[in-house]
Amino acid sequence: MSGHEANHIKGLLITGIGGLALTVDIPLIRLANGDAWSILMARTGTTFVAALVIWMIWRLITPSAPKLIPGRAGLAVSALYGIGSITFITAVFHTTTANLVFILAFNTMFAAMLSWIFLGERPRPATLLAMAVMVVGVLIIVGDSIGSGNLFGDLMAACSALAVAGAITISRASGEDMGFTALIGVVLPFAIALTMVARSDNGLQIDAPWWIILNGAVIMPLSFYCLAAGPRYITGPEVAMFYLLETVLAPIWVWLIFEEAPTRNSLIGGTLLVVALVAHSIWQLLSGRRRRATTAVKHPA
User: CB of 106 within 8 A of CB of 49?
Assistant: First the structure.
């Protein structure tokens, strides 16, 4: 086995672990059974502490550990991830799990749009087609929520997807290692949640705090680190495929645990989103391989 193949397998394994870990994020939040501000405070607080501990141990082992927040770009990325955490938790409490993860899957296309606007990276026709199909899918999901009380949650899910896409765009433009930046970004939502809980008459309200501690201390650092490390070994389209694990599996876990079945329109819109993303990711992967093969023929070693 060549070194390239070994690295590719390593990348698939690391990213697969991260993608699978991310699928239990929403079920653990639901199992903790608390109010939104208490859940946000506990989740972000434990994530921040875990990230600092991991980083300090890394620094003790080697001085080449990545920076927590690399410059102004890091501050912007950290802030966007923090905003995304707030809107994500808000969406968890105001819409169904299926709607949430299907709309979050749109962050890939939001990233393509932002790269087009701010980085001048014009999408190819296939990307524009996939974006159009995904817009239709999101409209079907959101349209089903009008009058049902889920519209606000759906909009918060879209804001979360947009915030993550903005963070990805800035990260790509800066070229900096943002591995820990997303984890440090939880300071903003933690500070806001801590203030809201302190002002509340009822204080901290979490019926089963061990679930949210497990989520913040183990699941979030593991998933964020693995998914951030994946692009070092495999292509962007391959990494995107593993992000889809949450879109597919999280509603299944919630359905099995809480018996929350997705609506017909949510399934229809979600199917359009997943099919468009999978088809587009496969097309990107094959297109990249063809370009590399052509380059190898023109410039043989």
Answer: no
Confidence of residue 146 (pLDDT cuts 50, 70, 90): low
Residue with tokens 């900096």: 176
Residues 219, 21: Cα–Cα separation, whole Å: 6
Q: In this structure, how many other beta carbons lie within 10 angstroms of the beta carbon of residue 236? A: 17
pTM of the predicted protein model: 0.81
**DSSP letter (8 states) at residue 64:** T
Give residue-wise pLDDT tens across range 154-208: 999 999 989 988 887 888 788 777 778 888 888 999 999 999 999 988 888 999 9
Question: Using CA atoms, how far apart are residues 251 and 27, in angstroms rounded to an integer?
Answer: 9
Residue entry with tokens 């495999």: 234
Contacts of 271 (CB under 8 A, 6+ apart): 137
**What's the residue count for the chain?**
301
